[in-house]
Design goal:
This protein is of the alpha+beta class. Helix content is 20%, strand content 31%. The strands form 2 sheets. The protein has a 6-stranded antiparallel sheet with strand order 1-4-5-8-7-6, covered by helices on one side. A two-stranded antiparallel ribbon has the order 2-3.
């Protein structure tokens, strides 16, 4: 996965860039953590790019002291970095080996 970040004036929503990924994460969150409001926020997360093999949903370096592991069966397929307020996902590590396509560049 290539490292890239997007300029601030070119932010897309994560759901626009990776709709299938968002659907999978929301379903897994609702199954494993039904009362957690993070599941409702996933589709509106901004897409900040891909850096250090993570999908960034906040600027790189944003504190994320909490991690949520999402599993399918016995396999952990996603790790979600969560901000200090425990209310927003800041990065997503996709562990199932899929290749994430690079998003289209911004159009001026």
């Amino acid at each position: 996965m290539e490292s890239s970040t997007r300029p601030e004036n070119c932010l897309l929503r994560l759901a626009d860039v990776f709709p299938d990924l968002v659907g999978e994460m929301v379903a897994l969150l609702r199954d494993s953590r039904p009362a957690d409001p993070i599941a409702d926020s996933i589709s509106s997360l901004p897409f900040h790019g891909i850096g250090r093999n993570y999908v960034l949903t906040a600027p790189e370096g944003t504190p994320s002291p909490w991690v949520i592991a999402l599993e399918q069966g016995e396999e952990t397929v996603f790790l979600l970095g969560v901000d200090p307020s425990q209310s927003a996902v800041t990065w997503i590590d996709v562990l199932d080996g899929r290749d994430l396509p690079s998003p289209l560049p911004c159009q001026s």
